[in-house]
Fold:
Amino acid sequence: MGSFKEFALSETMINALKKQGYVSPSPVQTRVIPKALRGTSLVCQSATGSGKTHAFLIPIISRLDLNLHRLQAIIIAPSRELARQIYDFTLPFRDFFPSLKVRLFTSEVGKEQNQEGLSISPHIVIGTPGRLSAMLSEDYELDLHGVKTLVLDEADMLMELGYFDEVDSLFDKLPEKIQTMVFSATLEEGLKAKLAKYISASFLYEGEEDKTASSVSHHLVDIKHAGIEDALIRFLKARGTYLAMIFSSTKEGVKKAYEALKAAGLNSVVFYGDLDERERRKAIRAIKSNAYQFIVCSDLLSRGIDIADVTDVISLDLPSDNAYYYHRAGRTGRFDRHGDSWVFYNRDSLKKPTELLGEGVPFDYYELKGETLVKDELGLINKRRFTNKKKWDNEDEAREIKIAKARTRSDKVKPGYKRKTERAIERVKGKYRRKAIKENIRKAKNEAYAKKAKKK
Ligand code: AMP
Structure:
């Protein structure tokens, strides 16, 4: 990693960054900042926690004409919490750029207050699409002629939540040749098609980043047939986490886990869709001030939000859309600090973990035994894979079982006859199970060797 000094940044900006403890740019900042400083439009696929917010904030602030009391940059984020977070990231810059004016436009802030905000002629506005487009069109005549940069943050989520109509109508009001910067964790075809309107000649595709940060270790935890809440409490005792986010895909799951933690006397807070506006704000404030050790939440908190120092992410189940697993895991291991992502599973829930393994998530395996976590070399998925027998082996096995049964059968029902038959059957089954395991391990090894040879 180089230094921020290698970019064409002012001395004041370098000092502002230094004051915040930022000396070396992150990889996404290294790629984006030089282009963004030149006013180039770009699309950047970047994981959360990669430092992407500063990748656009630093060039935006650098390119502002602070003597001009005019709106020059608009940043759109899909949720109030995310918009607030971007806004908070701008605050430390004010010490170094005292005339910098930034306004936040979300439903979190009252409409009147929003209007007052506009009358001060901010240089940058940050907001959610609904409130932003309403404020900039309906009642208030804001001069948009000076806007030179538009940022769409978490564009895939903007699309998922159906916000592109608002974004479109806002975009139509902006000057023609502006710089557009789009940041998105994923870049599917549907999104790319939508983005064509925003990014044309200077389109730049920044290429794919790893979906999972290398600073996160991924683990599958076999909770056997224990209840999820019971397993959770035992897991937390076994693990001794510092700050954990606990995810469930269902409202019921979130509620039950939160109740269980409370009942166990653990210092926890809950965040999910059922909370009203005020409760949400309160929860976010408490979470950010590190008032709780355990945050039980739905996937509402799986994206964007920057909560410092989360050491463990625990998925009590997996979301139906795998993308959300990556977002969840991205809550920890931020900025190259080490983090752990734990997923509860058992024999009845192998489908999703198998899919994620197939997508390249490097899971290792644990079993939860009482209140201890025990490393499991193979894991349930491999155990099952290794005992998958070939069709003809199944046929041979069935035949041998028939023979074993016939051999132990007798005209007279002798004592112990049943047990003898069972043992004979078990012997045959054991033989074929071992055969399958050996065969599959041999295959797995061959595959691994072949892969290694290819790499060389
Ligand atoms: P983000 O991906 O924008 O959510 O940022 C993740 C975290 O990294 C935030 O807490 C930032 O304060 C922090 N951060 C951003 N840029 C840097 C940097 N160059 N050096 C150290 N930390 C940074």
About this structure: The chain has 17 helices and 14 strands. The pocket of adenosine monophosphate is lined by residues 22, 25-26, 29, 48-54, 306, 334-335 (CB under 6 Å). The chain has a mean pLDDT of 84. The first strand starts at residue 42 and ends at 45.
